[in-house]
Write a structure and sequence with these properties.
Elements: E1 2-11, E2 14-24, E3 29-33, H1 40-47, E4 55-60, E5 64-67, H2 75-79, H3 82-87, H4 92-108, H5 112-127, H6 130-143, H7 148-151, H8 160-174, E6 178-182, H9 190-202, E7 206-210, H10 214-219, E8 223-228, E9 231-236, H11 239-274, H12 279-297, E10 322-332, E11 337-347, E12 351-355, H13 362-369, E13 377-382, E14 388-391, H14 404-409, H15 416-425, H16 442-455, E15 460-464, H17 472-483, E16 488-492, H18 496-502, E17 506-509, E18 514-517, H19 523-526
Parallel strand pairs: 3-7, 3-8, 5-6, 6-7, 12-16, 12-17, 14-15, 15-16
Antiparallel strand pairs: 1-2, 1-4, 8-9, 10-11, 10-13, 17-18
Length: about 525
């Protein structure tokens, strides 16, 4: 189904995959894991035919379904209805259009030729499951948490998370032989994740998934491909079994590396002590040098430990007591309002958590608060001395064609050395500073967007799913940094641990607009909303 031989991939001049070889057959379900920036998304782009490799071959048989980490839908797609886009996964939307044209042709001229053409097209449509396609598409969409009322809306009217779930629905509906899925559980609540895990568990084709969702990797995966320092290593079993095996490998390889290094050092010291003595000893030293060279050529490096990062957010500038006053907000997209009559205040240093089911308008509200969208009704008044920073879940502020350092300069006039040190704090050091930001991995884009918030010296943060795509060490570091930061926040997140670390003061329920004090038992609902 899928054969990869000696594949090498470069990103921004960096070799991120070196001579990788593996294969996937029907029933194989592999998880691709590694730290942020290791090259997982770049490898998937090559396997999906979206980018070129610098060496090796990729052979695929059968139809491919490829979910990008950040799906970009063209103008024609966003004007179509969500249901039509899902059904297009099998080309049935075009078949419906052709049938309608042939039906009209019969009405205008009921010739035998026109009737025969319609009959043949209708037979193909029926055999391809066309008449049951809508119910199947709706079943998949419902499983992924897309409400029935959303399916009739144009894609452009949906939030970024909803568009991504529609695209995932289209890929699953297509019934492809090979699935390449990059972070498929982003924007999914608990029920939708459980549905997707069950779907992938029963899937009979070949699956390769990039994910930081441990439940998905443990329940739907039978092999792990570990990518680090451009090397791809395969482990059999679930993610938990891989972690156990990886720890044993790291311990073993570390011991071997230490022994090799000690022996090389001992022999080098011995050879040095023989130089300049008798001719016989000099010849022996030369032989030892040759042996040392062979050992160095075969020397292995100790495995790199899980990288730890420490993130610090600077003290926020002083502001007035009330940093945000919102009154009577309403927003709709041509149909019934998504929410209406939303009113609240955010006080200095307060943390307000927005809770609501998918499609309740959480992202729409944050975009309005950030000034990137206009409400249908209502007013927003920032407080005295307030500087608001917005983290967009779709990385809207990351501009392809410009490097990360350019993005940092757009937020701060600080010296370049200071900006580069700030990027380094988020693990964006070295050549990454000058790499096209459009080629960064999802996790690196998340880190860059957060680094921009730090550089901007804000005292109010509007955070929309800021932990998506982060590896566990980065997530912990950023959660701890935000947890101890004394500025104001308005937060949207499905990450239970992250929200628990922040410990919000109050919660705004959408779409009804009710405000209440935060209670710990609400954590049980975070992943559902």
């Amino acid at each position: 189904m899928f054969q990869v031989r000696d594949l090498s991939v470069e990103v921004g001049g960096r070799l991120v995959v070196a001579e990788a070889t593996f294969s996937l057959h029907n029933g194989d379900k592999a998880g691709l894991v590694g730290r942020n920036g290791a090259g997982k998304t770049s490898l998937l782009k090559v396997l999906g035919g979206e980018a070129s490799s610098v060496g090796g071959t990729v052979q695929r048989r059968g139809e491919l379904g490829y979910l990008r980490q950040d799906p970009r839908l063209n103008a024609a797609v966003i004007e179509a209805s969500a249901l039509s886009h899902i059904i297009s996964g099998r080309g049935l939307d075009e078949a419906v259009t052709r049938l309608e044209k042939l039906r009209i042709a019969i009405e205008e001229n009921p010739s035998k030729r026109n009737v025969d053409c319609f009959s043949r097209a209708e037979e193909h449509y029926r055999n391809d499951g066309g008449y049951s396609s809508e119910s199947e598409a709706r079943r998949i969409a419902a499983g992924l948490g897309i409400g029935a009322d959303k399916l009739d809306l144009p894609v452009r009217a949906l939030s970024g998370g909803e568009r991504r779930r529609v695209e995932l629905s289209r890929i699953l509906f297509a019934g492809s032989d090979v699935l390449l899925l990059d972070e498929p559980t982003n924007h999914l609540d608990t029920d939708a994740k459980a549905w997707l895990i069950k779907f992938l568990h029963l899937y009979r084709g070949a699956l390769l998934v990039v994910s930081h969702d441990l439940a998905l990797l443990d329940k739907a995966i039978t092999r792990i491909l570990h990518l680090d320092e451009s090397e791809l290593i395969e482990y059999k079993g679930t993610y938990s079994q891989y972690r156990t095996a990886r720890k044993k490998d790291e311990a073993r390889l570390t011991k071997v590396a230490v022994r090799q290094s000690s022996e090389i050092k001992r022999l080098s010291t011995l050879a040095d002590s023989m130089r300049g003595q008798t001719q016989r000893r000099a010849r022996t030293a030369k032989m030892i040098d040759s042996r040392v060279d062979r050992m160095k050529a075969q020397q292995i490096s100790a495995p790199t430990k899980e990288r730890q990062i420490t993130v610090r957010f600077p003290e926020p500038p002083h502001s007035g007591r009330t940093v945000l006053h919102v009154e009577g907000l309403a927003k709709g997209y041509g149909g019934p309002p998504v929410f209406s009559d939303i009113s609240f205040d955010v006080e200095r240093g307060e943390r307000l958590f927005i809770m609501g089911l998918n499609g309740a308008g959480k992202t729409s509200l944050l975009r309005i608060l950030a000034g990137l969208a206009s409400p249908d009704k209502g007013t927003i008044k920032p407080g005295v001395g307030v500087s608001a920073g917005y983290y967009a879940q779709e990385h809207e502020g990351i501009v392809a064609g410009n490097d990360p350092l350019w993005h940092m300069r757009s937020q701060s006039q600080a010296p370049e050395q200071q900006l580069r040190a700030l990027m380094g704090m988020f693990g964006l050091s070295g050549a990454i500073a000058f790499q096209d930001a459009g080629t960064l991995s999802g996790g690196e884009k998340t880190k860059l967007a957060l680094a921009q918030l730090v550089a901007g010296r804000h005292n109010l943060l509007l955070l929309d799913e800021p932990t998506n795509n982060l590896d566990p060490p980065s997530l912990r570091a950023i959660a701890d940094a935000l947890g101890s930061w004394p500025g104001g926040m308005v937060i949207v997140s499905h990450d239970v641990d992250f929200v628990g670390t922040l410990m919000p003061d109050r919660v705004l329920f959408l779409p009804d607009g009710k405000i209440d004090y935060w209670k710990e038992d609400l954590l049980d609902l975070v992943s559902l909303a």
